[in-house]
Amino acid sequence: MPFSQDLALAALAKIKDPLTGGDIIAAGRLASLTEEVGIVQAVLQIPPPEADAFFPVRDAAQAALAELDGVAKASVILSAHKGGPTVGGAPKRKGNPHQPRRPEGYQGDSNIKKIIAVSSAKGGVGKSTVAVNLAVAMAKSGLAVGLLDADIHGPSAPMLLGLSGEIATTREVEGRRLIVPFEAHGIKAMSIGFLTKDDGPIVWRGPMVQGAISRMLWDVDWAELDVLIIDMPPGTGDAQLGLAQDIKPVGAVIVSTPQDLALLDARKGVAMFGKVDIPVFGLIENMAVFTCPDCGSEHHIFGEGGAKRDAEKLGIDYLGAIPLQMQLREDSDAGRPSGEGVFIKIAAQVGELAGIN
Predict the structure, then answer these.
(1) Helix axes 5-12, 51-66, angle to 10 degrees
(2) Tens of pLDDT along 92-138?
């Protein structure tokens, strides 16, 4: 009798997933299943820290496939890097090849009306500070707002929200165990910083980063939100491009300083979102001007007018300039985002462009 994909999937569905308690198919562990001339290979996607728990699963899956009719040899591989789901022949590379697979059941993001990405192609321009204050400003207008800190390698939300050292808990929601977001300054927030116990670096590659962020989207109990602000990781590489494809926000906001080097990278960010058909709502110029507290004179430390000119050239809105202020820096370090001043105006513009207000 020839090999049957249906029978293979049925056999694998009898194997228990050690983390969810269900079977490995329902848990989304199967990344690929291929067969060629009686040789069957399956790849199971697993979280790297739980590898020891999945070695018995691998052996059981391999034994189950080996017993099937038409199978001369079976091989099961455990992988932390997920390719496109494949059943049958060669992998089909449509869309994002590292797109994570949603688990079955209730989705934590099912009641989020709009998602907006706050991005910068260059680190150090104050993107996270802008994202947090933008979220707080939107909440002050009466909206239900969430913030997802998607910067896996350098999460800033815990400090900016005054939640450093806090560890998230979980609760049962419609048959699924979901992460409980923190509530502070009128918004709900989630960050990888709430899921790790120390300040050590998280050394993950692109596909793992994408999977972690996607999990924080659908495995968090966001409840009903008018808008979720995504604080994107800096850069325009595979991870950022894949995230934009997976999350598919209604639009993006680019943050840059007036410095020519930062603006060069900001243009790359605009081009990246264009490749995945996500509209860019506009450009926010951070650290635009410093006013001396002693003499009152203004100093354009990083240049003047560059962001506004670039926005005009790129055909996107110039959403406003945020000054380089001692108070903003002190509030950020102390976890006291005000969402006041220019952030109120920018939040209103972004909300209008996103069709929220």
Answers:
(1) 140
(2) 434 444 455 677 788 888 999 999 999 886 677 889 999 999 999 99
Separation CA 261–CA 194 (nearest Å): 33
CB 233 within 8 A of CB 150: yes
Characterize 36-46 residue by residue with b for buried, 16 or more Cβ atoms within 10 angstroms of its Cβ, and e for exposed.
eeeebbbbbbb
Measured CA to CA, the distance from residue 118 to residue 131 in angstroms comes to 6
What letter would DSSP give residue 194? G
Superfamily of domain 112-353: P-loop containing nucleotide triphosphate hydrolases (3.40.50.300)
Q: Which CATH superfamily is domain 5-88 in?
A: Fe-S cluster assembly (FSCA) (3.30.300.130)
Residue ranges of domains in the chain: 5-88, 112-353
d(CA 349, CA 313): 20
Helix and strand counts by DSSP (H, E) for the chain: 10, 16
